[in-house]
Write a structure and sequence with these properties.
With 353 residues, the protein is mostly helical. Helix content is 52%, strand content 10%. It has 14 helices and twelve strands. The strands form five sheets. Strands 2-8-7 form a three-stranded parallel sheet, with helices on one face. The protein has a three-stranded antiparallel sheet with strand order 4-6-5. It has a two-stranded antiparallel ribbon with strand order 1-3.
Amino acid sequence: WFFRLSTFQEPLERLYAEQTDFVMPSRHYNEALSFIRSGLQDVSLSRGRLKWGVTVPWDPSHVFYVWFDALLNYYTALFYAPPPPGPGDLDLVKRFWPATFHVIGKDILKFHTVFWPALLMAAEIELPEHVFVHGFLLGSDGRKMSKSLGNVLDPFEVIDQYGPDALRFYLMRDVAFGGDGAVGMDAVHSRYESELANDYGNLASRTIAMVHRYRSGIIPDVDTDPDLAGDFANLRTQVTELMDTAEATQALEVIWQRVRRLNRYVEEQAPWALARDPEAAAKLDRVLTSLVEGIRVVTVLLHPYMPAATEHLLSALTEARGEVRFGLEGAEFAGRTGGWAVAELAPLFPKRA
């Protein structure tokens, strides 16, 4: 039995013309469109010699070719998944379809960017808004991972040594989402030490320690530094715009620029020096409150990348207020804040040998 893919030549060309970001990144859009323009032929959707598979309802002597059977599951699974607990709309099809991003590997491009949308068109079901094609992780030498070559990055080894947050962070940080990239244990260690342990973890630990040392663990209730606030202006908008186009690695870099800015702010303001000068008490209050607020904002935005570490840190910063908030509304740098206690914090990312 055949699916009349040829019937959808014009509808697919029209889809690609009207929605130039249907397939992302753009190089894969061009690859898929080129395949369509080469001329679509009807394709076999059943196999007569196989004994395993989903039986064709109108012909029990045939089973469906797996790539047609499997594609339908993206949509039909929503009819069988148990509804989530709690109030609200429990219709999972209505809630999750059409998908904003359908994420696939680049080696199955044809099935998901040509066959799949044609099947949905035939069934008069809405198409995903975008099909995002991710690349491959390569060995540290840039070649395909192979045990015989010894260039394999074992994710469980990374988790055992550095934790799952570090693995998530590294993969998003070192390899641009959507592209190919080399990965290796040495690079994991470098990112962990330089960015997680030093840039972020040490920033959080020393800031909280200074609040305890100089202000008895209470964040001063004062106006934040407008100069630092300016560095955080439009940060939430920048990050959400990048995430809306699946540019997760670029969004992480934008957030990390603020992590570096906070570290520079510590060095510029030198709170330890201000603490020795009684006349600088008000300035020290502003510096400490501004640092805490900046760390809070980047922590909210880093939550998708490092859920465990960010939840631990935000709990330390806000638990006295009785809240831990990771909604995007919490990613705005406040003009005035403070007045509550911060908890002591163990190192988020302890140094590794």
